[in-house]
Fold:
Amino acid sequence: MINQKQMQLIQKLLEKTRKQEIHWKETETVEEFQISFPSSSVRISGSGEKIVLGIFNEEGTIIDVIRENELFTQETNQSLIELLHLARRDALNADKILDKIIASLK
Structure:
């Protein structure tokens, strides 16, 4: 079961990512994206319908994991899906690439 702090983290990451106030980067793992903070980092990955959000300390040790789960509310699962989608688009510069393609088609 997800706790209040975990839900708050998901919502804050989602909010800041939507507003483009934080920027995700690709990791060495396919379909995994990371945001770094001064003494920690968060990684989100997903394949198929299983999404995993990992929280790491400054040494790179995983300290908490949130996995998409059928026991979560639909809202929580939707938030994780949206966060993965937005993190991926941000890390891969999808909007910039689409803008270039659209401009070349004019």
